[in-house]
Design brief:
Layout lengths: L2 E6 L12 H14 L3 E4 L8 H15 L4 E6 L4 H11 L5 E4 L10 H14 L3 E4 L17 H10 L3 E5 L8 H9 L4 E3 L3 H7 L7 E2 L10 H10 L3 H10 L1 H10 L3 H4 L4 H9 L17 H14 L19
Parallel strand pairs: 1-2, 1-8, 2-3, 3-4, 4-5, 5-6, 6-7
Helix pairs in contact: 1-2, 2-3, 3-4, 4-5, 8-9, 10-13
């Protein structure tokens, strides 16, 4: 578990009736080319069946050829479904990111413990815990998942090996608390605007899973510089990224209020970097022309991305099927 893990979103056929194998495998190969160590296969899309996600995993694993960690996104509708799919896709994944369903509304931390432990006990993959405001657990603890709860899960679940620490977003209190208390697991800060400066004073071997494929190979190279102790170089790259970082903020605007990540805008950013793009099933948040224009300006100011193309081409994709 070294380097940076990003995310890969599924590609669909033009009629949206099926998955697009060529598009999915193109994206996997581009992610490897960019220098990422791994990728989360995003699950919070309208899949028609559990088997579609299994197919997504199989095709991604085939294209990765052992050169890319693949991460199971345990974010389906129920605990039972997350476990069932995990058991089917275990041969294709290296570990899982444990999420919580939109309709899951625990009233005690014990319930969160029981959900999390049940997943760990009934699946055969390493598990990364994920405290983050998306789960709406703030009523249970300001850090979303308290340090005693995380400690119980680390101690009681032998497959838990990492914590993706975002419990205090947009602050870093949750990250620092986890970093200082949990020396027996890998602590991940997935946010590039935080981890690169922090690496001048803290030790991180891994950052993920995050949305940085929209910057091409920029974040793996920046992380590698910081990891090697070249903090001046890393910070120079950090500041150069600022126009694109601001544009990324526009693409993600609204997530903290809706709890819904705009996967279409992320897929558009990927497409501008050479990934497949293509249509997405509804329901989905949208990306409009203003957002697209700002993204093009941001990456062009940095000098990254493919030559600008008509935005309409995004909805077709590089490998239409």
């Amino acid at each position: 578990m070294h380097g940076v893990d990003c995310v890969i979103m599924p590609s669909f056929t033009a009629d949206l009736h099926g998955l697009n194998k060529a598009g999915i495998q193109h994206d996997v190969r581009k992610i490897i080319e960019f220098g990422f160590g791994g990728a989360l296969l995003v699950a919070d899309f309208p899949f028609y069946s559990d088997e579609e996600y299994v197919q997504f995993a199989e095709w991604a694993h085939e294209a990765a050829e052992g050169k890319l960690r693949l991460v199971y996104h345990a974010s389906f509708n129920t605990l039972e479904q997350n476990i069932s799919i995990a058991q089917k896709v275990t041969p294709y994944f290296d570990y899982s990111l444990l999420c919580y369903p939109a309709n899951y509304y625990p009233t005690t931390e014990q319930q969160v413990y029981e959900y999390s432990k049940a997943f760990c006990d009934q699946t055969d993959m390493g598990v990364m815990l994920f405290p983050v405001p998306l789960w709406n657990f703030v009523r249970l603890h300001p850090a979303q998942m308290s340090m005693p709860l995380l400690r119980r899960l680390v101690d009681d679940c032998e497959t838990v090996f990492a914590i993706k620490a975002e419990g205090d977003l947009p602050g870093i209190g949750g990250l620092l608390n986890v970093y200082n208390l949990f020396k027996d697991v890998i602590v991940s800060c997935p946010i590039e605007s935080e981890i690169i400066p922090l690496m001048s004073v803290m030790e991180f071997q891994y950052s993920g899973t995050n949305y940085t494929a929209g910057y091409g190979d920029y974040i793996p190279k920046t992380f590698a510089a910081a990891r090697a102790g070249n903090h001046d170089e890393a910070m120079e790259r950090f500041w150069k990224l600022h126009p694109a970082r601001q544009a990324m903020g526009v693409l993600g605007n609204g997530t903290q209020f809706t709890g819904l990540i705009n996967r279409m805008s992320w897929k558009f950013a990927d497409w501008a970097m050479g990934l497949n793009g293509g249509p997405i099933r509804q329901p989905t948040a949208k990306v409009n022309d203003g957002m697209m224009a700002q993204w093009w300006r941001g990456i062009e100011a940095l000098g990254i991305g493919v030559p600008r193309q008509p935005n309409a081409d995004f909805f077709i994709g590089r490998h239409p099927a």
